[in-house]
Amino acid sequence: MSDNRRLSEQEIIRREKYAKLVAEGQDPYKITKFIRNSNIKALVTKFGPFSKEELAAMPVEAFQIAGRIKLFREAGKKAAFVNIQDQDASIQLYVRMDEIGEENFTRFRDLDLGDIIGVNGTMMKTDHGELSLRVKEYTLLSKALRPLPDKHAGIQDIEEKYRRRYVDLIMNQDVKKVFQSRSKIIRTIQKLLDNMGYMEVETPMLHVSKGGAAAKPFISHYNALDRDFYLRIATELHLKRLIVGGFEGVYEIGRIFRNEGMDTRHNPEFTSIELYIAYQDFYFMMDLTERIIRECNQAVNPSNQIVYGDVHLDLDKPFKRLHMVDGIKEQIGIDFWKSMSFEDAKKLALEKHIKVEKHHNSVGHIINLFFEEFVESKIVEPTFVYGHPVEISPLSKLNGDDPRFTDRFELFIIGREYANAFTELNNPMQQFERFEAQIKEAEAGNDEANDMDIDFIEALETGLPPTVGIGIGIDRLVMLLTNSESIKDVLLFPQMKPRD
Fold first, then answer.
1. What region holds the Aminoacyl-transfer RNA synthetases class-II family profile domain (predicted)?
2. Are 86 and 40 spatial neighbours (Cβ–Cβ below 8 Å)?
């Protein structure tokens, strides 16, 4: 297959340079390996504090490092200064013709920004005090056939930042730090839960029924069984089966798929952690959630006083706890603690210009609509909102004092949901009735309603101990702790709309 792309002038020139290297027996793509005895960050950390004179007085030691050329400037006809960058840092190279030879220096001057080279040399500082590696040998390891964006302007098209993440990572060290922080946050959660004796597991991504969350699924056809499967919208129901099986604490960090829109907070595939612990309730999970978030923050930030956008948050303070009904009463004065009919609740909603769908057929649905409309966006400090109506919580245990509500909470920070947790419903007869109610909602037009899952009902009939579970959105947590505006900023390869 021929390459019919229209090449820029720079791309043509770089290909000509590569052809010349091949003709001279210098094809960089034939090199399979380059041994480094240090990395740039280690050299900067070790030798940065010393003066020019102190470095000159040290015993001569050769260092072999590699990186991508980010800056190239000639110092007359016989010397050049070059900056190279590896994963964590950059350093200046000082290259002289009389040290590497005229032929090698001629080839060196023909290198381009973006080329990857390996070098061997000794540490020094320039008259201006800049730490540098004085090059004795160099090897071209990879030729960049496409030019990098201007180092000051970067990638101008925000969409291109996400489509060509590899270029964004090359040009912006802060972007790279976000993803290094993401890795630290995930490792911190794993270490914390492992140390508590909980086990990380893997559950299927292909499900025969949609359940565990209110969301629209992706549907895939499995040819061998001639049957449609759903890409999982949650890991909940399989993880609870493991609690039935005798494990007392299990969690999974993995991809979830929801066939919904894309915006600054949503991507059709995202990462969550779900955790289930036997013999505990949702109050225990509130305490553990605070601990998880604080320890994750401490892994990536120097203080529990953090900034997100223009909002300052104090993660040292205990998280607020707010009943959903109290939140509505505080904001607009309507008291849903009082007993009322669905017709009366619907009338209140219409008076407040809240849209009521056909499947919103209970007071509980109306309470949730009021919360979403008038309370959710007003929450700033980390707040556990609890007491969700039973109608919107098909997998949650009823509250012992008021069966209109469940022992469920969601964590909100600056108007965004970060976690959803509840004491698990372990009564198989009630769970069957809840699934039936979900089927009726689906028939009334709710395409996010759960299916009936008879296998899960049978698991509950085998016996699920008192259990609490939680789901935490990893992407949103990373956004919060790295002060990232969009979910695309914390996903290496976010889903994008077609260019056309």
1. 182-498
2. yes
| pTM of the predicted protein model | 0.91
CATH class of 9-148: mainly beta
Question: What stretches of 346-493 adopt beta strand conformation (E)?
Answer: 383-386, 408-413, 416-423, 467-473
pLDDT value of residue 385: 98
CATH 3.30.70.20 given to domain 171-319+381-489:
no
Distances in Å between the alpha carbon of 79 and those of 73, 135, 314, 429, 431?
A: 9, 11, 53, 82, 77
pLDDT higher than 70, residue 152? no
In terms of Cβ atoms closer than 10 Å to its own Cβ (0-12, 13-18, 19+), residue 135 is buried
Range(s) for CATH 2.40.50.140 in the chain? 9-148
Identity at 287, one-letter amino acid code: D
Q: Which residue has the tokens 């009902």?
A: 457
Average pLDDT in the 322-338 region? 97
**Residue found by looking up tokens 């609870």 in the block:** 240
Show the tokens assigned to 492.
């290496």
For the annotated binding site for Mg(2+), the residues are 410, 417
Domain with CATH 3.30.930.10 in the chain: 171-319+381-489
Q: How many CB atoms lie within 10 A of CB 183?
A: 12
**Could you tell me if 40 and 90 are in contact, meaning their C-beta atoms sit under 8 angstroms apart?**
yes
pLDDT for 443 equals 87
3-class SS letters over 313-380: EECCCCCEEEEHHHHHHHHHCCCCCCCCCHHHHHHHHHHCCCCCCCCCCCHHHHHHHHHHHHCHHHCC
Q: Rounded to 5 degrees, what are φ and ψ at 441?
A: -65, -40
- Bridge partners (DSSP) of residue 83 are 71, 92
In our burial notation (b when 16+ CB lie closer than 10 A, e otherwise), range 219-230 reads eeeeeeeeeebb
Q: What is the pLDDT of residues 433-456, one digit of tens each?
A: 988 988 888 888 877 777 788 999
Q: Which helix (H) or strand (E) element contains residue 403?
A: none
Query: Which pLDDT tens digit goes with each residue over 360-414?
Result: 999 999 999 999 999 999 999 999 999 999 999 988 999 999 999 999 999 999 9
CA angle (238 as vertex; 225, 459 as ends), nearest 5: 95
- The answer to whether the beta carbons of residues 391 and 365 sit under 8 Å apart is yes
Mean pLDDT score of the chain: 94
- All residues at 6 or more sequence positions from 496 whose CB lies less than 8 Å from its CB, including other chains: 159, 162, 163
Measured CA to CA, the distance from residue 48 to residue 381 in angstroms comes to 41
**Confidence at residue 153, expressed as pLDDT on a 0 to 100 scale:** 64
Distance CA(467)–CA(459), nearest Å, equals: 14
- Which parts are annotated binding residues? 410, 417
The yes-or-no verdict on residue 155 having pLDDT over 90 is: no
**pLDDT for the residue numbered 1:** 54
Task: Say yes or no to pLDDT of 499 above 80.
Answer: no
